[in-house]
Automatic annotation (TrEMBL):
It comes from the Eukaryota. One of its GO terms (cellular component) is cytoplasm. Residues 280-293 have a biased composition (Polar residues). This is Protein bimA. The keyword Transmembrane helix does not apply. The keyword Signal does not apply.
Amino acid sequence: MAPTPTAISGLIRQVIHYHLDNASYENALFFAERLTAQDPRSSEPTYLYALCHLRLGDYRSAYDVSKPMGYRGVHFGCAWVFAQACLALERYKDGITALEKSRSLWSSKSSLGKHSATTRTALPDASAVLCLMGKLNRGYDDKKKAIGCFEEALKINPFMWDAFTALCDMGVTVRVPNIFKVNDALVQSFDVEPSSSVDSREGSVSNPPEVPAKKSQRGVATDIGSDPFNPSNSPTIHELTNGDSVMESERSEFMLKIHEGRIRYATTNTNPGFDAMETPPNQGLSEVPSSRAVQPHDAPAPSRRTRNMHAMDQGHDAPPRMNYRLGSRRTRAQDKGQQEQATEVVMADASNGAPSGSLRSSIPAAERKRTAIIQSKLRRGHDRSVAGRELKKARPPISRIVRPGSSGSSVGRVVSGNRKPLEDAHADVDHGEPPKVKEAPPQPPAPKPAELDTQRIEEGLKWILDLTKKLANGYYSLSQFQCAESVQALMSLPLAHQNTPWVLAQMGRAHYEQASYADAEKFFRKMRVQAPSRLEDMEVYSTILWHLKRETDLSFLAHELVDSAWLSPQAWCALGNAWSLARDYEQALKCFKRATQLDPKFAYAFTLQGHEHVANEEYDKALTAYRQAISADRRHYNAYYGIGKVQERLGALDKAYAHFHAAQSINPNNAVLICCIGTVLEKQKQIMPALQAYSKAVELAPRAAQTRYKKARALLAVGQLDAAQKELMVLKDLAPDEATVHFLLGKLYRSMGEKQLSVRHFTIALALDPKASQQIKEAIESFEDDVDMDDSMMA
């Protein structure tokens, strides 16, 4: 018989997903092409074919293959692959259109908490799609829609970290505590169905971890061949969330195991202790005897009966914690019908040589036994002896239900041994305390497994979200250039997380933004020890070494990066910084240009290139490089600063102020930018606004000598001599060997009439900077003529 096309396609799908899961993308592509040829009318082969191209990094082929169905939004998988290819190829509008047209296919999907080592969903859910749409809109320069998509993605899934970092990088104001918090919907996403698995440590019996494959499972695999992530031997029910067909197949499989267990109980009874029970306790779910069967403190048959009735009285509101005793919830009519069905099946299939008469007689005996028990409860008196006789009459037919090859006499001895304590127990209860016959023995209240699972999940989610919240606070504060707050948030992490490469890099960047280059270098050096192959943020590390004038360390770093990652822009930036520190500006420019060729979106490489052009006094080329950096990253304040410096040198003070102000609006806590604004205002003769800028800069960087010097000069210009003297005294301690400081002190004492102190500091300035001797001599001679002194040497 020839195989059906459906069976062939299902098998090829399994092979494709096998190779995809094992990262054998070439093999997956080969068989995806076979599947496309075998089943050209279906849309799923096209999706798998495009997916293989996407995994291989062949974005153009993925774009072409998925476009017919993806662009129109007909198949969600094709639309997803098509949008991913559009993002890589910078065809943002096409990707946005495809996802918008397929919105009805993904808007209500949510697979958070449904992924594990054995169960996954092949297609993304709404949060993943919204995050991709945000990236596409951001690339399309539609900031408003991009922010909306990222926010919606985070509302659905707070673990969508790249959506959060994208919002931070775009400069959006984010309330971190409102994002990373536990809510009922999040707990329910990770919650487990209480009936799917029970903790065996609490005295319950869990489902067996492995179930032999049945014929029905093979049929299901054929029907849903498009879903290779459906495990045939899943240990829990809650993991099977990949479609209605999967749930139906697993429910039928579950009932099949219960039915087969009942048949086994009707045909073979290896433990006579169960003869007095209405239903076997666990034969429907486990293929091995339950450990409860051999426990000496098991309740006798009437007690088991009472518990079952109590469970039935609870109705549908009872917690589904009894999946291992599903058989005990049957009604009396169902028991009779199922036992009769089991008898018919056994009589049809039995080949063990057991007499059919014994099977027929066993069912009326069980009915007589239960009837006798009920009558004993109602009549209370001498009828109990009649019930006892009825039970004794039920023994012989029950004892005939034996395993093939076992002797009837031995079974009879075991059964009679079990009967005696059972009858004695009933006699004691009836004569002592008759009302307690109807009640189960009191048990201490225990928390429900479902409640325990929910509590554990909620506690675990709270811990994870608290950790993520600290990381998010650190990243968000750094994106807002609130460096002190960022360091504080990252330092509150557990020590194990503080020593991870990502956290160390963020700490290094925070200190770098504060101009604490020595501290920043320590963090990056430690990060390099833990992750020597990490390339991210290496351009910042090389710039830190450039500021520290560590030529040897910088050259060694550049050599390592170029050897390990020749095609990375970070390596070429490090090499360019090494050439720049060696004052070979031409070689540095070549390296920075190579970095921009490797990654046209790498804004920092353009900025470094502009700095080298400024050093060569090539201002037009510098402006072009800075503008390219802004085009790559709108929030790259270094480029705005570079343009401002060029415009200031060219004498365009208004343009310089505008660019300095733009940079300061991005990074409001940078003392250098605020000082530059004050410098431009001072050159425009706006002394009081300049003084306010200098004062703010000094507050942000108290140990910045240049900023404090400019503040003292502005105070001296507006006649605030006492305040200027205080600033200069602090400045003298910060920079005792700076000639400009002593020159300004001499000018201050001249204004205060302190001629001796003035001449002293002028003399010190002359000794520290002999090149400025002419200006200092003119300042000393101006005492007699009372002429304003020129402090141009201080500029």
